Amino acid sequence: MAELWKRIGTVNINGREFESPPFSFAFSLDFVSSYAPAQGELTIKNPSDETVQAAEKQGNEFPRCTITAGHENDSGLVFLGQITQSESKWEGVDKNLKLKLMDNANLWNFSTVSLSFSTPVRASQIIQAILAKVGVTGAQIRPANDKTFDTYAVNTTFRNAMIQLAKETGSDFFSRQGQIYFRSPTASDTAEAIVLQPEEIIGTIEKTDSGVKGKTLFNHRFAPGVFVDATEARRNPGIYRVQKCKMVWSDEGDANVEWEGRAA
Which residues of the chain have pLDDT under 50? Predict the structure, then answer.
């Protein structure tokens, strides 16, 4: 198990990199659904003037930002996207840089895609063609029903096209860290499952109208579509597919994930 008491994190803004420790920062990220872009906030304590400038929009270009976070021996990428708003303000004796974030899904979700197939084509081939059109990587393209269409036409946004194909093939579609996953909603991908030990669960896993909700110590692997193996939980044990989650991380305060899911 990772050294859960020793937190580490890195922020990169347009090539300027900050590690914690020694730098101090905190963030929260909301992953509200499988295909909506993640949004969040990042606060950097007492930044230099150069850092403040790097976080400002230059013309039509939003600054790029990546965040990795976790614990010693177990950290990873949690955010890959852009800074959409920046503000410096004094809070007590500290001057903090507060940044609004939106992940890279926002860059291609609303891109228009126009494609047509006049001969029989499989769903997976259509998906790959759409991904190539917008320049997005497909991490896993395994439709639940890789059906063949006699003809097929696409003339809509990337997001709408993928949602339609997900419905037509009975599949789940979600993005994670700039890559697309398209697979069966009942797939048992245990190799990717987050295995929760009882001591990592904060409180208990509770039932909801749509499934369950829980809170755990910070784990960088959480995202919509990911499996959670909570078979060792003291209450409502099981394997769940994450529907949405919120990450909170600070080098000085809270570091946890609140999540909601359904039985896998």
Answer: 1-3
